[in-house]
Amino acid sequence: MMDELLAGAARGATRAGSVAPGEPLAPLAVALGDPAGIGPEVTAKAWAMRHAHGLSPFLAIGDRRALEAVWPGPVIGIGHPREAPAVFDQGLPLLQVDDPGPVVPGEPSLAGARCALDSVELAVGLARAGTVAGVVTAPVAKSQLYAIGFRHPGQTEFIAERCGVAATNVAMMMVGPDLRTVPVTIHVPLAEVPGLLSTDLIAARARTAARGLARDFGIARPRLAIAGLNPHAGEGGAMGGEEEAVIAPAIALLREEGLDVSGPFAADSLFHAAARSRYDAAICMYHDQALIPLKTLHFDEGVNMTLGLPILRTAPDHGTAFDLAGRNLASPRAMIAAIRLAGACARARLASAS
């Protein structure tokens, strides 16, 4: 079944992200992630709380046993995503991928990693074909993926490649109720950040963020605040020269292009309430600069959204939490937020196409 669905998705891939005027919104696809992690549990809990949070219809892609091992609720097997809306109120719709073997919560396996990768690949293929309105990815274990030959830094880069988009042309945006942040550099050692920053890279991330805010959030003229790299944004060169040599030229270039960009700002004063009211997203120079404020403000509701793709992709901002799997302790709030955001952005795209 998976091969047939992928073949159909490949034939329809030119429809990526498009919806004909008057066409109903397709369901979202939730790739369950590692079967031994908390992805199946939080997805099932999100379905159980669908009405309370106004969630759009969605289907799960993964293994039935991963759900049944952690949740006693109804699961309805489907053969195609179009079947999901009709059965959504009766049970969690599931597209089964290849059999991963026995599933034990909290005990990852190589077979489980293959199942997780197949689930993501199928979800992306369906989104590219327009068969689903967007993709929500539950967490995977990178160490397990690397053991089966996975060569990407994470799911974001893998999805970008499957969509035919260079990794430099996508951006990771962290989204919370009161804050959006975009890291310019992501999963790299802090010591390497200054050497990796460039005017072109900062400008590329900012452009991608601006386009995403306009397309998916309906912000016609997004306001972007650019953080400095060094303490006090370099203090005029006394605490580092990257602000003057690299970041300020990027800001000037973006302004010449007509974008509403300000900075560079000292990061320690960029995230309090009054500062947040002055921008729609903060462009940060490295991973922790972007994620610490987001997780401080919205630890249980943070969403990782990939901008610059031809499809919608969100993910809850947490890991596999193998230590919690199977204990009914995992909070579904981030998964609910990821599904809700994907649905809202899908409806925004549908409205703009009508």
Explain what this protein looks like in three dimensions:
- It is a single chain.
- Helices cover 39% and strands 16% of the residues.
- By secondary structure, it is an alpha/beta fold.
- A 12-stranded mixed β-sheet has the order 3-4-2-1-5-12-11-6-7-10-8-9, sandwiched between helices.
- Helix 1 runs parallel beside helix 5 (110-128).
Please write out the topology.
Elements lengths: L1 H10 L16 E4 L7 H10 L9 E5 L1 H5 L6 E3 L6 H4 L4 E5 L13 H19 L6 E3 L4 H6 L7 H8 L8 E6 L2 E5 L9 H4 L2 H19 L5 E5 L14 H15 L3 E6 L7 H4 L4 E4 L2 H12 L4 E5 L5 E4 L16 H21 L1
Parallel strand pairs: 1-2, 1-5, 2-4, 3-4, 5-12, 7-10, 8-9, 8-10
Antiparallel strand pairs: 6-7, 6-11, 11-12
Helix pairs in contact: 1-5, 2-13, 9-10
Q: What is the element string, with H for helices and E for strands?
A: HEHEHEHEHEHHEEHHEHEHEHEEH
The CATH topology of the largest domain is: Isopropylmalate Dehydrogenase
Main structural class: alpha/beta
Q: Characterize the largest beta sheet: strand count, sense, and whether it forms a barrel.
A: 12 strands, mixed
Distance between the terminal alpha carbons, to the nearest Å? 33 Å
Q: From the coordinates shown, what is the CATH architecture of the largest domain?
A: 3-Layer(aba) Sandwich
- Which CATH class of the largest domain is shown? Alpha Beta
Characterize the quaternary organization of these chains.
single chain
Shape: globular
How helix-rich are the residues, as a percent range?
Answer: 25-40%
Q: What is the number of helices?
A: 13
**Global Rg:** 20 Å
Strand order of the largest sheet: 3-4-2-1-5-12-11-6-7-10-8-9
